[in-house]
Every structure is written in C-alpha cells, then in structure tokens.
Amino acid sequence: MSAVELTGFAILAVVLLAVLRPIRPELAVLLTLGAGAVILLSLLPLIQRIIELLTTLAQRGNVQSLYLETILRIVGIAYIVEFGSQVARDAGEGALAAKVELGGKILILSLALPILLSVVQLVVRLLG
Amino acid sequence: MTAINVDVIWQIAGIGMLIVVAHSVIKAAGREEIAWMVTLAGVVVVLFRVVGVVEQLFAAVRSVFNL
Fold first, then answer.
1. Range of the domain at B21
2. Does an H or E element contain A93, and which?
C-alpha cells in the first residue's frame, strides 16, 4: 500500500463524490464511509507491524505490560472514534461528531485511570 | 500488505448512477412511487455493501489493538 496507491484512491473517491453528491447526497455519505473504511483497512497491517516492534522493545526494556496494553487500546479507540466523528462531520452533522468525540475522550480517560492511580501511589510511596 | 480494493467505491458509484437513471426513466413513465421504491432499494443495497466493509474494518481494528 504505497503513497501513490493511497493518493490515487483518495482522488478517485473525491471525483466520484463530486459526481454523486449533487444528485444523491445520501449515497455520497455512504461513499465517503466506504472509502474511508477501505483506506483505514489497508493501513492496519502497517500499524500492526509497528505495534509488534514497540511491544518487543517494551518487553526488552521490561516495561509493565499494563501500560503498553492500555496505550494500545487508547490508540485503537482514538482510531475508530476519529473515523466515526469525521464521517459525521463530513455529512454535515457537527453536533453528532462532537458527541462521538466526547464519548471517545471519556472512554480514553476511563482507560487511563489505572495508570494515573499507579503513578499517584508511586509518588506517595516515594514521598511517604 | 493488503492492496486497496478499489472495487468498493466503483460499485457504490455505479449503483448510484443506476439509481438516478432508473428514477428519472420510471418517473418519465409516469410511475412516481415505483421510482422512489427503486431509489430506496438501491440505497439499501449500497448500505449493506458499505456496512460490510465497515464491519470488516472494526473487526480488524479490534484484533490489532485488542480492544
């Protein structure tokens, strides 16, 4: 999945959207959704390789797996929420997009809480 | 590396064109409600196709980030 392929696909999608939007706006939204999903889908193998590299590095530096696990999950949530909110905003539903983003932030915060707690405990133990 | 399967957007655009042409032809033939039903059917077909791709994406993301 090279840059040329990615850009070519995006330009093709934009042209098809330009044709489709004036006559059938709802299909344009579906086309954006489909094109966005296809692009993100083709990016996933690259991301997976990066993640495998990071996990091996983390294991070598014996980072606690809880932290890495949470970070991975947070990135996944951001990945999906970003996709959903941008599609909603593109379709003209700014309010819906903001709600999706709010939900994403709350999910990420709820995932980050255990890490915050362990940091606080560490600080207390150091100072105490 | 998974190549981008371009045919998804070709299908969607093709069905879109088909719907528009069918709609105007049927409307010209005087059957307005049939035209609307054809349009609706086309949109539903596209919807299932897109939902399939998005579901594939969500399953892949869930497995990569083990959400």
1. 2-65
2. none
Query: Cβ A27–B4 below 8 Å, yes or no?
Result: no
Distances in Å between the alpha carbon of A68 and those of A31, A56, A59, A108, B42?
35, 11, 10, 14, 45
What total of structural domains would you count in chain B?
A: 1
B15 neighbourhood in chain A, CB within 8 Å:
27
Which residues of A, range 19-78, sit inside 8 Å of B by Cβ?
Answer: 19-20, 23-24, 26-27, 30-31, 33-35, 37-42, 44-48, 51, 69, 72-73, 75-77
Give me the tens of pLDDT residue by residue for chain A, a chain 128 residues long.
Answer: 788 999 999 999 999 999 989 988 889 999 999 999 999 999 999 999 999 998 899 888 887 788 888 889 999 999 999 999 999 999 999 999 999 999 999 999 999 998 889 889 999 999 98
Q: How far apart are the C-alpha atoms of B61 and B29, rounded to whole Å?
A: 48
Asked if A1's CB is within 8 angstroms of B9's CB, the reply is no
| Model confidence, pTM | 0.86
